[in-house]
Design a protein that fits this description.
By secondary structure, this protein is mainly beta. The protein has one domain. 14% of the residues lie in helices and 51% in strands. The protein has an 18-stranded antiparallel barrel. Helix 4 packs antiparallel against helix 5. It starts with a helix and ends with a strand.
């Protein structure tokens, strides 16, 4: 309780400081170039150096972006939003790299609660020559796409004994957004199947289906509901994956209500996260880790209109396992706990937008033989736009994972990634990124480190077809003897979208 009181007092002090500093910080909202009148900027650039290709491109893109406001908004789908770090910075699961624009979707949701949004001049990592137009189905705009590629890897299994194999990938992606005047409903359905012809037992399927509904109940009150299902395979080198072919099913439901009260916005919400683990072709959960996590959350957010505004989040946690006697020691892993975080939301659009926070989380397990699973938590999603042709995104996340290893309370995964995309022309886009994750077990001397690098490019061949190629490198290091490995893979193929 004392931590909650201190966090609330700190939030109020920071809110007062942000309001006082608002005027003095206002010059951070953009560079001199951004503050200049469009006509004056274009004229000055042309007069200074009419052969400067970079200036010419920025001038052209500025004109294009004026007409792409609605198009950019349609690609930033709330149901596809990427919070924290996924794709490049995950540990324990085999997941595909997420779309670059998914991070922008998450940040848009963050600043939308303050009445803001992602500036239309922020590059979303997509080629504009073959920009998805979608098609209308009733009151919805549907944007489908599919990527088909092939390549090679030197470690298909992702283990210390893995061998090389050819590979192919089929990755469909369908997104939908309602065209209602007041409320909004988004949905996203995406999947990926990576096949290895020489080693079919190592095939990696994944699937994500999600939907988000936003209701404007009044001028100061809104409600948000979400439902998501994800399917992925567990990393073959993980100590949790003894059989080598564990599948992870996660079903998440969220419901929240937000009300603006003066200079503060309060959000009261509840989450239910159901996780089950299956082996091979089994469709039912049989693992001792199968559990449901319930949480009730309260978030206080400053709404004074400043560039930097504080927020505080408090959560009550309740984790219940399907089997309370999951291992040889019959340890009862049911737990109660809480999480407290404080952070700041940044709205220096179009240059820098997002939020970052830190705090503490504890899950107190019922079995007295097991220590509480506790540690610092960090979360963040940031978008930096140094120019209209380049965007850099960063993500941080912390996750508490269950285990049925004897005497271990669970594990904590800290992960982060940094990605950059640059538009060389309306047809040609390049991207690079790096991700890192660190996993530590409480009650067992096990640690895992994973570093991933990624380089890719996209070239729009026609209005509907683009050529894509990418190279991935992963190095995995663990305290478990004989489990370290490295992996290189390269792919090339075509993306089709409407």
């Amino acid at each position: 309780m004392s931590r909650l009181i201190c966090l609330t007092v700190l939030f109020l002090l920071l809110q007062g400081y942000s309001l006082a500093a608002q005027e003095s910080m206002s010059d951070l909202r953009g560079s001199v170039e951004d503050q200049a009148a469009p006509d004056e900027s274009a004229a000055g650039a042309g007069a200074a150096d009419p052969t400067n290709e970079l200036q010419r491109r920025e001038s052209v893109y500025e004109l294009q972006n004026r007409d792409r406001v609605d198009g950019l908004r349609s690609t930033l789908n709330a149901a596809a939003a990427e919070r924290g770090s996924t794709g490049l910075g995950t540990a324990g699961r085999v997941t595909p790299i997420r779309s670059f624009s998914d991070r922008l979707s998450a940040v848009r949701e963050i600043v939308a609660g303050r009445g803001g949004g992602i500036d239309a001049t922020v590059f979303d990592g997509e080629t504009t020559f073959d920009e998805a137009q979608g098609f209308r189905v009733g009151a919805f705009t549907i944007t489908p796409e599919v990527t088909v590629s092939g390549g090679w890897t030197d470690n298909a299994a992702g283990t210390s004994t893995g061998t090389s194999s050819r590979l192919y990938r089929i990755a469909p992606d369908i997104r939908g957004t309602s065209n209602w005047s007041r409320h909004q409903l988004d949905f996203a359905l995406r999947g990926s199947f990576v096949g290895y012809p020489e080693q079919p037992s190592q095939n990696d399927p994944s699937l994500t289906a999600s939907t988000t509904l936003k209701l404007d109940l009044s001028a100061s009150t809104s409600a948000t509901a979400g439902l998501a299902y994800t399917f992925s395979r567990e990393d073959a080198s993980s100590v949790e994956n003894i059989s080598g072919d564990n599948n992870v099913h996660e079903l998440t439901g969220t419901l929240g209500f937000t009300r603006d009260v003066g200079l503060v916005s309060a959000t009261l919400g509840t989450d239910v996260d159901r996780t089950t683990y299956t082996t091979g072709g089994s469709s039912s959960g049989t693992s001792g880790r199968d559990n449901t996590l319930y949480s009730a959350n309260l978030r206080l957010q400053g709404r004074g209109g400043a560039i930097f505004e504080p927020f505080a989040v408090g959560s009550l946690l309740l984790r219940r396992f399907d089997n309370t006697c999951s291992d040889a020691l019959c340890e009862d892993r049911n737990a109660n706990g809480y999480e407290l975080r404080g952070g700041v939301t940044i709205a220096a659009s179009p240059k820098l937008t997002g939020e970052i926070s830190g705090g503490w989380r504890i899950e107190d397990l019922k079995d007295n033989r097991l220590d509480a699973l506790q540690g610092a938590v960090f979360d963040g999603s940031l978008v930096w736009s140094p120019s209209r042709l380049t965007t850099v995104t960063a993500g941080l996340s912390t996750s508490f994972e269950t285990t049925d290893i004897d005497y271990a309370s669970g594990s904590i995964i800290y992960s982060g990634d940094l990605r950059a995309a640059h538009s060389f022309s309306d047809r040609f886009v390049g991207e690079a990124g790096v991700g890192y994750s660190y996993r530590t077990y409480q009650g067992a001397p096990i640690q895992e480190n994973s570093l991933t690098g990624f380089v890719g490019m996209t070239y729009a061949v026609t209005r509907n077809i683009a050529f894509e190629t990418q190279y991935n490198y992963t190095t995995y290091d663990t305290t478990v003897a004989g489990s370290d490995y490295t992996r290189n893979s390269i792919e090339a193929g075509f993306r089709f979208r409407h």
